[in-house]
Each structure stands twice: as structure tokens, then as C-alpha cells.
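Researcher: We're teaching a course module on how sequence relates to structure. For the next exercise, students receive a sequence and then see the predicted structure as C-alpha cells, so they can try to spot secondary structure elements on their own. Here is the exercise chain.
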Amino acid sequence: MTDQPELNDTDLDAVREKYRVERDKRLEGSSRAVVVPDFTGPGAEYLVDPYQPVVEREPVNDEVDVVIVGAGFGGLLFGANLRDEGMQRIRLIDTAGDVGGVWYWNRYPGAMCDVESLIYMPLLEELGYVPKDRYAKAAEILAHAKKLAKHYGLYDDALFHTAVTELRWDDEEGHWLVTTNRGDQIRALHVLVAPGPLNRLRLPDLPGLDSFKGRVFHTSRWDYSYTGGDSESELTGLRDKAVGIVGTGATGLQCVPQVAKYAKQLYVFQRTPSTVAVRDNRPIDPEWVKSQQPGWQARRQDNFTDVLAGVPVDEDLVHDSWTDLYNHLLYDPAFAELSPDAAAKLREIADFNQMESVRSRIATEVADPQTAEALKPYYAYTCKRPGFHDEYLASFNRPNVTLVDTQGQGLEAAYRDGVIVNGEKYELDCLILATGFSTETAGRGMLGYEVVGRDGLTLNEKWAGGLSTLHGIATSRFPNFFLMPGNYSQSAGTVNLMHAMQHHAKQVAYIIGEATRRGARVVEVDPEAEAAWVQTILDKAPDRKEFLAACTPGRDNYEGANTRPAQNALYGGTPREYFEILEKWRQAGDLAGFRLS
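Model: And here is the predicted structure for the students to work with:
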């Protein structure tokens, strides 16, 4: 066991009560609706591409082997693996002006990955690329996506600045009809959707926002024409501006320090403080990477995923703030020798001590005691995705930066000259919305368009009561249709999403490739196999209801509502167990659970 101060039952009760009080402050504020804009609905103006102009073109009417909806890394990995399976005509379709997905859109100053780039950026060995820094910046990740697309010839038939409006299965012809907002009518034998978990931005439901006369934009559509500079900073356009940033999650942690350097006045509006652990970014030695044996990236990915799943490893290869927490605090090997209740208590104590170290760092780095106290998070460490940054806290020592703690209620309203918080007006020239994305996991809420399968059944209708898939990647009555699983989607859950996406892409490409080799035109999930997998998800799902109910509102507990259907869950075993299930399934070679015709 690691050395940690002991807490008696009275101490734990006091901790739980403090966490409960802080949670309850935020329950009312979290219940306010958010607007998830579509390209044709309210808020659509927030979705305009500020990076590349839309190029007019004639509608496309043709036929391809595969349409991949989404050109982020999920779609690119689908395409790369399909190329390895020999597929020729592959068409990417994306609303963005290029590939990259979340990294195309999120170019805000300071944007970078929070997982080590050596395990996050995919196919490094295949492309012969070494990232510059341990935590790569957005521009480098976007460039890698473009390199990947070029390497695998995925630009050839791509359609950008194009939104799919419907996917409809034609049972008589045995193909999908893909329609778009640009008049395209594309016939595809297979359709793969890779929407990404961060594709549908959300806005605060803020009364009076339309009346605000200043500049407003979401961080995923950063307006450099207004701020000046680029993702490397130099935001000289803000030197005479009073700026407000709404949101202190991962995006806020990264863009606040950059805006703070240039804005005349910066107000940071906080509903819930984030944990802010050390990131410790530094350059990567390319010679060290060259010295590694082939397969080094997969081994490093597996090792990181195992550590965060509590699987004992001989050596922590990544050894960063992520693995320090999970390997040495929450999943100490000594827990295995204890009763479940005793282990749970020690985990709770370890979690508390980790949070105490986070709060202690805040007290040390933030000069003003009142600001420091407001920045301290009071909830279990694993209630939210942890944050990491080396400049965020110090930003609040600048005389031009003011933290506005909304006490969990968020902004009250906007008016012509700014916003109102706790009854006080704050005059602003610019309001930046670091308010994140919708995390819906099913149907139209996830995709933004309708998918119509056999007999007119829509995916929204089928999943109205909860997800139903085989391995999280396919669903019955929707032939030749595959998904890149998102959050809580009956597949593996990993901090390093790219690791899971590589396994999912390999599985889907194998199915399509093997069906093609067998001369099958249609491949569809057997309902019995699907039902068995759903039961597996239910049987193995850990009971986290009590824990999530005690958490501060966030995406994992539906903002405190806890209304997620039981089967909308991740595979309850470790991610590596899930990956092994897929691998053994492929080795069997019989496409079990799928019907071919």
C-alpha cells in the first residue's frame, strides 16, 4: 500500500457531507436545458466553419463500396483498415472542410491532447512519425490526420463541408442510399458511421443571449479574425477587450492561460471546478523512439490501458499523472487481499487523499486565498475526467484575470453589454463558450440524422429503450451498417479513446473483408447473438448507481439525473478482455453472430 493518512469513519462522514453539499448546489443549475444545435436549427450560426470557406460543387450521384460518415480519426482508422482489406472505393463524408474531426474543429489557443501522444496518435510506426512533444498540440495532431488520409488514399472520393441528412437501406437493391444537405444521392454497399464522442457542440440555455451585442463563439469554432493569432497564441486582438469564458472543463483549462496573456480583462465563469493535476509536457527524443523494438506503440498502449484498468503490470511504461493515480492509489494490489467493503473504504480514502493533493496544489499556486478556495474541487476524483495543466492555476495570479464562481448555478442571463451572475452585471466585449459537447450515445441524438433500416425501422425507434448491438459495432435489421462506438456503447471504455478505436476499426474491416472474400453482398447481425451480447453487458456491468448519485453533476451521471438505460453501458470487464473477445472471434473465422447472404 502507498503511504496515506488514515481517515476514521467520522472523518469519512465529514468528507461525504462536504461533497454532498457541493453536489447539491449544482443540481439545480445542471437541470437547465442546453441547446444542441443542428446545421439547420436554432443556433446553426455557431456551426459555421471559420477555418475554410465552403466551395460550391454539383451534387454527386454515384455508387461506392463504402461510405464512412465522419472523417475524424475514427473514420480514418476505418478507412485505413479497409484499405488493408483491399477495399477500393471508400468515400469519407464530413461537415468539416478537411479530415481531423475534433482536431479540425478544436483549434482554440492552447489545445492539445491530455493522453501521451506516443499512445494517442495512431499508426505512428506505420507512418514513420515521431510526435514533437509528449502531449501534442492540436496543429500537430491535425497534420497527422491529414498525413494518414493521404497515406491511405482517403482523399480520393471524399466529400467535405457536407452533412448527411439520411441513411436509408434499400432491401430490394441491397445497398444504402445516402442523402446529404448538398443534394447528393450516393449508393453504398456498406455504411460506417464514426460520429466521435465530441461532435455535437452544446450551448448554454442563457436567456437574453441574442441581445448581447458583443462577439460570441464556441471554442470549437474559435474566431481568430476577432482575437488575432492562431492556436499557438498571439491573441493581440484582445488587448483592449473584456472577455468572458464560460466553462472550466478540459477546454477551459487549456484556453484560459492563453487568453489571460492578452485580454485587457478576463472573467472566468465557473460552475464546477476541475481537478488540475501536473501535465509536465516536454519534447520527445526521436532517437529514443528509433531505439524501440517493432510493435512498441501497441505494447505501450496496452500497458497504459492495463494500468488504468487495475491490471498488474511489470513496468509502468508511460508513467504520468494518469498512471500515477490509477496504479498507485485507486488500484493498489493490496486491495485484492481485502474484503470488498474494506477495499472500497480504502479506495475512498485513497481518492480523498488524491483530491487533497489537488486542493493543496491549488492553495500553493493561487495567491489569493478566496480565489484558491473557489477553485478547489470537492467531489470524488473519478466523478469526472481528470484535468491536467501547468499554467491554468497561475493564470489567476494575473491582475487582469477574475474568477467568477457561480456557486454551481451557471450564468443567469445575458444582456446587451454582458452577462449577469449572482445578480451582478459583468460588461463584456466577447463571450467565449467553452461549454463542451453533447454526449448522447444513441440514434439521432448521437448522429444528427436518421438511419432507416429494414421495413422502415429507424435506429432511433430501435434504440428508444436502450442500445442493442453485437460488440457495440453493429445492430440487427440494419444490414451492412457499422458503428464506431461512442460513450457507454456496449464496447470497451478507455481513457485513450484512440486505442479502442483502432480495435473497433480492425474488427469492422475484417467483417467486411471476410464477407467480401466469401462472395456475400449482405452481412447482418443475428438477433439472438445481439440479445446475448446485450445480456453480457447487463450481467457484467458494475453497479455504480450509488457512486454516480453522489457525484457532482456531469456527463457520466447525466448531469445528476442518472437516467441512462442500464444497457447503455461499457463492457464490464477490462478493456483488454474486450479486445481479446474480438481477437478470438476473428481467429475462429466463422463470423459468428452474423448472417451472410
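Model: If you want an answer key for the exercise: The longest strand covers residues 61-69. The two ends are 56 Å apart (CA to CA).
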